[in-house]
Amino acid sequence: MARPDKAAAVAELTDEFRSSNGAVLTEYRGLTVAQLKQLRTALGDDVNYAVVKNTLTKIAAKDAGVDSFDTLLEGPSAIAFIKGDPVVAAKGLRDFAKANPLLVIKGGVLEGKALGSDEISKLADLESREVLLAKLAGAMKAAPQQAVSLFAAPLSQAARLFAALQDKLPAEAVPVQDAVQDSAADEAPAEASTEETASAES
Q1: Where is the composition biased (Low complexity) (predicted)?
Q2: CATH number, domain containing residue 18
Q3: Any residues with CB less than 8 A from the CB of 103 and at least 6 apart, and which?
Q4: What separation, in Å, do the N-terminal and C-terminal C-alpha atoms of the chain show?
Q5: Nearest to 32 by CA among 24, 44, 40, 21
Q6: 28, 78 Cβ separation under 8 angstroms
Q7: Hey, CA dihedral for 120, 121, 123, 128, is it positive or negative?
């Protein structure tokens, strides 16, 4: 590769490191072109999976302030530059590696922090940002519903109580509705007397 081409390649890789919120280094030895295409499709538009040259990547990583790849850049290397949710990208890489063991996840970097392959695997086990936002939205939506249920609970409990009482009453007994009305009528004078007392006090 001519020097200007090398400089352009380094500049492009440096920009990828700087503009990505994470990057995962992999070894793809033995994978076919078709499998690499399948992996790119699986990772989606928020991940740029690029086959890289180790020497140029070391220079670009150093220029971008990433030093965690220095000892890992051996053999056929490709980097997943993550622009979106790192959890989704980690899941995509892990799942593809399970189905295609020739893909080896060697390490990565997330928001400037170096990650080992085991940490990337743990990252893949987390819930995605989309799922967490959906759960948060569900929790916020549930709050007013819980309040409505709370206010509605005494009414439904009263209805069940009245139905249960109706079942227990003998056939000749006063119907529950009448009993409730009588009970309300008995309480009315007490309320009136309370109002009169309040009026007298004022």
Answers
A1: 190-202
A2: 3.30.70.1730
A3: 26, 27, 28, 31, 39, 93, 96, 97
A4: 100
A5: 40
A6: yes
A7: positive
**What range does the domain containing 195 cover?**
132-201
Task: Let me know how long the chain is.
Answer: 202
Which residues 6+ apart lie within 8 Å of 169 measured at CB? Answer: 175, 176
- 57-61, 87-91, 126-130, 150-154: range with lowest mean pLDDT: 150-154
Pair 103, 12 in one domain: yes
Do 106 and 27 meet the contact criterion of CB atoms below 8 Å apart? yes
Domain boundary among 74, 103, 126: 126
Last residue of a domain, one of 102, 126, 150: 126
What phi and psi values does residue 123 have, to the nearest 5 degrees? Answer: -60, -40
Residue 179 has pLDDT above 60, yes or no: no
- pTM reported for the whole predicted model: 0.64
pLDDT of residue 143: 57
Indicate if the pLDDT at residue 76 is higher than 60: yes
